[in-house]
Amino acid sequence: MQLNNRPKLLATTVAVLILLTVPVRATSITAGVFANGASVSSTSPDSVVFGDGSLWVAYQNGADSTGASGSSTVVRYNLSSSVVNTWTIAGNVDGLRIDHESN
Fold first, then answer.
1. Residue 17: inside a domain, yes or no?
2. Which DSSP letter does residue 36 get?
3. Does the residue 22 lie in any domain?
4. Quick check: is 84 in a domain?
5. Comparing C-alpha atoms, which of 70, 100, 72, 85 is closest to residue 39?
6. What's the domain range around 95?
7. How far apart are CA 52 and CA 74, in angstroms?
C-alpha cells in the first residue's frame, strides 16, 4: 500500500464506523382492525394466512372440533379488507394454509 492512500483509507474507515453507530429510528406503525367477520356473519377467527395477494381467515363459528356439529367459514379478503369470496365448510377448519405450489 502506498503511503499517500493512507489518509483516504483512514477517512473511509472513520465514515463507515460513524454510519454503523448512528441510531436509526424504525418507522412507526399503527394497529387497526382489518376485518371482524361481521360482514360474513362469522365469529371466532382462528387461522389467518397471507397468500395469492389476499388475506385468508378461517372463522370457527363455534363448530365442534370433532366435526359432530357446526360449520366454519373461510373468507378471502383483498388488501382493502373487502370480501372476495367465502366458503362454508362442515366442522372446524384448523390450520388453514396456502399451497404455493399450485399458484
1. no
2. -
3. no
4. yes
5. 85
6. 41-102
7. 15
